């Protein structure tokens, strides 16, 4: 890769298309992951991923599984594009004399990519989580034992009027990502959209450090010769294996990030002042196993997502589009 001239527009197109396809395929599992991670001990609404999906369809309809998908579909293009292009950029500049990168330099390139992507990832996740978790909160509010008027007042004020109609048993009023973003900007400024930035960095930087070197080495095993490219199916399997491994490895950070970015809380659900406070309270009240909540869901989300990304990337869809359209003027 270091011997090739990097076509940034092509990488952006590859990452964008792959992200849209991948998110469309796996978003319901991602919704289940968010709801499972936000559950507290003794307040479980869902028993497993399948139980969550079945109950979501029953109570919210088929499209209930795609709550927050519009945010992801809108922002996943720049997110994946930045991640892949940044990794390529750092690998290109860390390579010397056409020689292969050491594992350390591959990890360094991944670290750089992870730090770049949080510019888009943090607000995207912030908005998505509010929409994904609304259904779980609505189910909790329909249980009088678990949600009293006093506790309703004690919940986070931000966005509360968007989700709570004032009655315990009523469903939340529909709210859009645009409404959430507007209210956050009005009440908290730009930092409102970047709540949980530290936790996002804690998740995405280690993820990229694990993912990119692991993928590069797994993909190298499928090459018929050092100069040749690996078959597309091998790139897909390598992306799946590397993605799922990295996803499970950083799942504790993802749990912390999800908890910190959830503005609305259910009955008796505590709030957190920061990463350290969140980790401490989870350990005290739920135990170490809580940090693995949603790990299988996250692996199922990330594996095909990054498999599809790498297939698009290595097949060269972006290059083909640039070569066969007026967009070729954007090429190098």
From TrEMBL:
Predominant subcellular localization, coarse grouping: mitochondrion
InterPro entries, per database record: MCP, MCP_dom_sf, MCP_transmembrane, Mito_Solute_Carrier
Listed transmembrane segments: 12-32, 299-322
GO (cellular component) term, any one: mitochondrial inner membrane
Keywords noted in UniProt: Membrane, Mitochondrion, Mitochondrion inner membrane, Repeat, Transmembrane, Transmembrane helix, Transport
Membrane topology category: Multi-pass membrane protein
Subcellular location: Mitochondrion inner membrane
SUPFAM superfamilies, per database record: Mitochondrial carrier
GO biological process terms held by the UniProt record: malate-aspartate shuttle
GO-annotated molecular function: L-aspartate transmembrane transporter activity; L-glutamate transmembrane transporter activity
Pfam family, one: Mito_carr
UniProt key word Repeat: yes
Reaction catalysed by this enzyme: L-glutamate(in) + H(+)(in) = L-glutamate(out) + H(+)(out)
Solcar repeats: 6-93, 101-221, 230-319
Function field: Mitochondrial glutamate/H(+) symporter. Responsible for the transport of glutamate from the cytosol into the mitochondrial matrix with the concomitant import of a proton. Plays a role in the control of glucose-stimulated insulin secretion.
Family to which the UniProt record says this protein belongs: Belongs to the mitochondrial carrier (TC 2.A.29) family.
The protein, known as: Mitochondrial glutamate carrier 1
Source lineage: Eukaryota, Metazoa, Chordata, Craniata, Vertebrata
